[in-house]
Design brief:
UDP-N-acetylmuramoyl-L-alanine:D-glutamate ligase, binds ligand NAX, binds adenosine-5'-diphosphate, binds potassium ion, globular, 20 helices, 548 residues
């Protein structure tokens, strides 16, 4: 699990560590991390002509990191230039870059003539501003950053951001002005919240952390309440279990899907495919005749009679004919206290369900920004636009959780999950190809299926169901399935960009993702076992052991 902390918290820990370390020692470690990332990303192109790298340096320590990294890259044999965008760059780092043979030039602002040709390169290192940014980028830097962003996009230049993409850095992920979008961010000491929170996270690309040896205690008390969590493959893997000799379909979990209608049968098919792919014991479908026929044609194992289940998904593709039945499926789930995913059209049930007795504690709402705006407007009786939610998604998701008492999954290229206990999970989309009609229906199915499986596990005496974490893991699986189906690996050295996919192809890739994860789980359990073994090896023999 990645734990992201507020930038100020990391900055304070950094300041204490800098005071204890030799001069520029931390900065040199930071720079090495940046240089390594650049070399890794540039690697795929070696042999196709010189790899050109330009370091963009501002006037603070972020620029110092970039200039030291430029020096290291030059000494490693790359062709490196540095552009100074400030009158007072970090003096020692600048001297080191010059001594290493970096071609250092001033870049006078404003960029009246546009971006000069000598900046054309395979890669830029963005060291304009880091955690020292205060407020929105001021002119003339703001305009320059917009110009640079445009030029990089046109030329296909990849950008590696130092610490945070310049112009971003607000703790809540809001973006006050111009930002230089990065393909990859090398962050120092610990992941900072804006790297995981949209919209800022949408500018960060993939994120890696350079260990600066800041000990966890250095972050001070109270940090966890402000932290943002990002599950990794190993965390997701532990949600899954390979069925064993004592399993049967009911122990594996049964999920009811109430989606699709005669008008929109496809949504029901896709939600069922997502649910089946995630590996429950059974999927029940409660939908229109047309939807049921199409589903049964493709998936004869689906059961179209109502009955016991451990979770329900209600939502996508409802029409007025089926709406009443879908609402009663939702009410039944609430009455039985099983987890319930309300997706798409069923988000309109929230107001009705809120007036029912009992909290919506086991409910997961899965709006995209537009649906979240509609729901907020309805619940608060005030105008809320999609843009408002997109500008401050964390605030929007938190507000929805407060208002409803449900877990909220706010979908987008970065998806936020806010739990009823206040935990915030951030899941990064793997490929833009995932944003296709029906993709959300597949996600709802995967989520309901995973919730049913975890609920079944709880009923067997396993770990208690963690609704928010389970929902977050479903988002992870969905994103990974999209990546697999599209053949995309945009963050990889070979930069596989993938190809268009349809929602049913995404759903068809889910079983392979699950299969990969159960192997990861085996590995993860082995690692944890061995860590515990090693930790306990040096303990003094305890009384029970001595008796043995
Ligand atoms: N001190 C150290 O030894 C270390 C520092 N680190 C780096 O240092 C960075 C923080 O450095 P600083 O505190 O010097 O600050 P930054 O370098 O992040 O930013 C300060 C610079 O940005 C300018 N600036 C601030 N707000 C602005 C605005 N609104 N519009 C335009 N310009 C603005 C300032 O004038 C100054 O030139 C981190 O992000 C990290 O990259 C890390 O390398 C870890 C070690
Ligand atoms: N640019 C993107 N990058 C990655 N994932 C995306 C992107 N855009 C959308 N997604 C994902 O695709 C899904 C779209 O869901 P939704 O908007 O409900 O679509 P639909 O209603 O058509 O099924 C969500 O899971 C969302 O997170
Ligand atoms: K930066």
């Amino acid at each position: 699990m990645i734990h992201a902390l507020p930038p100020q918290t990391v900055r304070e820990a950094e300041r204490r560590a800098v005071a204890r370390a030799p001069r520029d020692a931390l900065m040199l470690r930071a720079a090495r991390g940046v240089a390594d990332a650049v070399e890794r990303l540039a690697g795929g192109r070696v042999g196709e002509g010189p790899v050109g790298v330009v370091a963009l340096a501002g006037g603070g320590d972020n620029g110092g990191d970039a200039l030291y990294a430029a020096a290291m890259l030059a000494r490693d044999g790359l062709e490196v230039r540095a552009a100074l965008l400030s009158d007072h760059p970090h003096a020692r780092a600048l001297a080191e870059a010059q001594a290493a043979g970096v071609d250092v030039r001033r870049l006078p602002l404003p960029l009246d003539e546009g971006v000069p040709g000598w900046l054309t390169a395979d890669l830029w290192v963005d060291g304009l501003t880091g955690t020292g940014l205060r407020g929105p980028l001021r002119e003339p830097l703001a305009a320059a950053v917009r110009e640079l962003g445009r030029a990089a996009r046109l030329a296909g230049t990849r950008i590696v951001a130092v610490d945070v993409p310049s112009g971003s850095g607000a703790e809540d992920g809001t973006v006050p002005g111009a930002v230089l979008p990065a393909d990859h961010t090398v962050t120092m000491g610990a992941v900072k919240t804006p790297l995981l929170l949209p919209p800022a996270a949408q500018y960060a690309g993939s994120v890696e952390t350079v260990d600066l040896g800041l000990d966890a205690g250095a972050y001070g008390e109270g940090a966890p309440s402000a932290e943002v969590l990002r599950p990794e493959a190993s965390d997701v893997s532990l949600m899954l279990r390979v069925p064993g000799p004592f399993d049967h379909k009911y122990t594996r979990g049964v999920v009811t899907v109430a989606a699709g209608s005669d008008t929109y049968p496809g949504a029901g098919v896709l939600a069922v495919m997502g649910a089946l792919g995630a590996g429950p014991g059974m999927v029940r479908l409660e939908s229109s005749g047309r939807t049921s026929r199409i589903v049964l044609d493709r998936h004869p194992g689906v059961v179209t009679a109502s009955g016991r289940s451990q979770a329900a998904v209600v939502g996508s593709g409802l029409d007025s004919e089926i709406e009443h039945r879908a609402l009663s499926v939702a009410r039944r789930a609430l009455g039985r206290g099983i987890p319930l995913v309300l997706d798409a059209g069923a988000l309109g049930f929230v107001s009705a369900l809120r007036t029912d007795p009992g909290p919506l504690a086991g409910v997961v709402l899965t709006p995209h920004a537009g649906e979240a705006a509609t729901l907020l407007a309805e619940l608060e009786d005030r105008p809320v636009e999609r843009d408002d939610v997109e500008a401050r998604p964390l605030a929007g998701a938190r507000r929805l959780t407060e208002l409803t008492g449900a877990t909220v999954v706010l979908k987008g290229s970065v998806t936020l999950v806010v739990g009823t206990d206040g935990r915030v999970f951030s899941l990064e989309g793997t490929t833009g190809w995932a944003g296709v009609a029906g993709s959300g229906d597949v996600l709802a199915g995967v989520m309901g299926s995973l919730l049913a499986q975890r609920r079944a596990e709880e009923e067997r005496g396993g770990d208690p169901l963690d609704v928010a974490l389970t929902a977050a893991c479903a988002v992870w699986i969905h994103a990974e399935a999209a990546r697999l189906a599209a053949g995309a690996d945009p963050a990889g050295p070979a930069q596989a960009l993938g190809a268009p996919i349809q929602a049913d192809e995404l759903a068809s890739a889910v079983p392979a993702v699950i299969g990969g994860l159960v192997r990861v789980a085996q590995e993860e359990r082995r690692t944890r076992r061995r860590r515990t073994w090693a930790q306990t090896r040096d303990e003094a023999p305890s009384a029970p052991a001595a008796r043995l």
